[in-house]
Sequence to fold (517 residues):
Amino acid sequence: MDSNVIWILVAFVLYMVMMVAIGARYMKKTNNSEDYFLGGRGLSGWVAALSAQASDMSGWLLMGLPGALYAAGTGQAWIAIGLFIGTVCNWIFISNRLRRYTIRANNSLTLPEYFNNRFHDKKGSLLLVSSIVIVIFFLVYTASALAAGGKLFQMVIGIDYTVALTIGAIVILLYTFMGGFMAVCVTDFIQGMLMLVALLVVPILAYFMAVKNGSMTEILELSGVAGGSDAYLSLWYNGGEKYRAIDIISQLAWGLGYCGMPHILTRFMAVKNQKELNKSKGIAIVWVALSLTFACIIGIVGRAYLYPTMLGTDRGYSTEHVFIAMIRQLFTVDFKWPFLAGIFLCGILAAIMSTADSQLLVTASAVSEDIYQGVINKKADDKKVLRMSRITVVAVAVLAYIIALNPNSSIMALVSDAWAGFGSAFGPLVVLSLFWKRVNKPGAMVGIISGALTVLVWDYLPLVSGQTLAAATSIYSLLIGFCVSLISIVVVTLCTKAPDESICKEFDDVANKSIEM
Fold:
């Protein structure tokens, strides 16, 4: 093992020890299920903002998105544009109202519990169905994060993928298991800051190193980009082919997913007060704008900076490794600062860990708070629920680990499927439950089921000449699933009995802002 790898490894070890130490600290402060799942609704504006966005962006931001632009060009940035629009709308239109409504709806701690209380579902059917959806899609989502961590360790340190995957999974599991929501949020805050610094510094330095050897367009032409540099740098081309309108719409549709993401929505529910929530909005929107912009720049600059190395053709390097390759080239070859390389590589690790920990926690809440206490054992006390939560964190981590054992799994594909599942199953219902008094329990139930099933059918069943509908049409399943769920909720609601007076009264209380925030 050479000295560069040793310094990088030292940075990794220090970083992971710090994360586990935070988990140990907050374990002493976790006394009940509300502490474990929402931190006692005591998040500050900064922590809420960066925790929400760091848990959102995952390894996809620093591996999947730059890799897509590296391979196919600027046209892949439509995904980032859609996500930015979705983020802004989520903070402006959803955050305040959801926090207010969860307090009014019997102090709901989780998204399934909110649905259950919002529609006065005494049988717990909404609680059960929405919790099952969370478990299914978060297994895939968590697996994507663990796979990204495994690939990072494998490439940087040169260890076997399975060993690398195991190390990352154990560290994430430890601090999530111990500290719960506050440990996750505090670590996410640190990780969000580290991600942003890495995103800003690396592409700027790489750009100035790249243009020493000629202009960007000249180097891109030499690298053999499809369609030439003009097409590669155009929003209207993808891999040298002119975009169809449906392709752009499908990529923009990623933004629809935000209002259905449990791990993001729980941050809105946990903010301390209205003042802190308003502060969070501005911080989160600026963070996302910078992060998405520079993640896109990484893919384009990386193509020129790393030339003549061609990721995806050189053995052992995929296009999703572009940011890792840039950091190693910058700080171990161009500049001899290997420890700094380790710190910036921890930015990628931060993106991975900040999402995986949130997903583990939300899945644990769905199983212990919603299924166990809400359906199976309604008399379970806080200690039993807390114990079940920690058992669930371990069980989900193990299952996600098994899914991630395939080293050839695509981070982008795994995230895409899970994002579509949540956005379709929960997104339309969250919006309508907050802004339409008439929506009722039958509509809610049909909306969740139809949205989730549409994504599973669209992405996984080979119905067209051995191809899935997603592959055959190039239409993102979230666009179809969201529309199916939305229409289903409206039609079923209008065809069934209107909600009773007590439900309407709660809606009016929230709409009139008569709930103390």
Remarks:
- The first strand starts at residue 237 and ends at 238.
